[in-house]
Amino acid sequence: MEEVLWKGKPFNFGLPSFTTYEITESRIIVQKGIFTKRRDEIRLYRVRDISTKRNLFERLINIGDITVFSSDTNHAEFILRNIKNSTQVSDLLGEMVEKSRIKHRALEVAGVME
């Protein structure tokens, strides 16, 4: 069983959220739904880039969106919405991506044009 390094839900201004996010040592796991649960996973070694977006209001209440770009064909771009402490979560995610790439010996090869 993998250790869960971070677990959270989108901040919905007091309304219930039926989405949960988890970051483990090797995956991002997203679960959505009430009656029908959908579970999606992205392997960390497949993550290519991470970006964070926070507008002025979001900065005031310390939330933001984290966009994950991956080489996964099903989830080439995935957004973790309204995450509390989004910059710290993004930093944690970046560290875990690097560790996972080293562990799996995954290298990103950029296309070279001549």
CATH architecture: Roll
Radius of gyration: 15 Å
Task: Tally the helices.
Answer: 2
Distance between the termini: 46 Å
Largest sheet: 4 strands, antiparallel
- Which structural class should the secondary elements be placed in? alpha+beta
Q: CATH H level: which superfamily?
A: Pleckstrin-homology domain (PH domain)/Phosphotyrosine-binding domain (PTB)
Strand order of the largest sheet: 1-2-3-4
Shape: globular
What is the share of helical residues? 10-25%
Uncertain stretches: none
Helix and strand pattern: EEEEEHEEH
Tally the structural domains: 1
The CATH class: Mainly Beta
Mean pLDDT comes to 90
Q: Per DSSP, what share of the residues sits in E-state strands of 2 or more residues?
A: 35-45%
Walk me through this protein's architecture.
This protein is of the alpha+beta class and 114 residues long. It has one domain (4-104): Pleckstrin-homology domain (PH domain)/Phosphotyrosine-binding domain (PTB) (PH-domain like, Roll), CATH 2.30.29.30. Helices cover 21% and strands 40% of the residues. The protein has helices at residues 56-60, 86-104; strands spanning 4-8, 19-24, 27-32, 38-43, 47-53, 63-70, 77-84. The strands form two sheets. Strands 1-2-3-4 form a four-stranded antiparallel sheet, covered by helices on one side. Strands 5-6-7 form a three-stranded antiparallel sheet. It starts with a strand and ends in a 10-residue tail after the last helix. The model has no long low-confidence stretch (mean pLDDT 90).
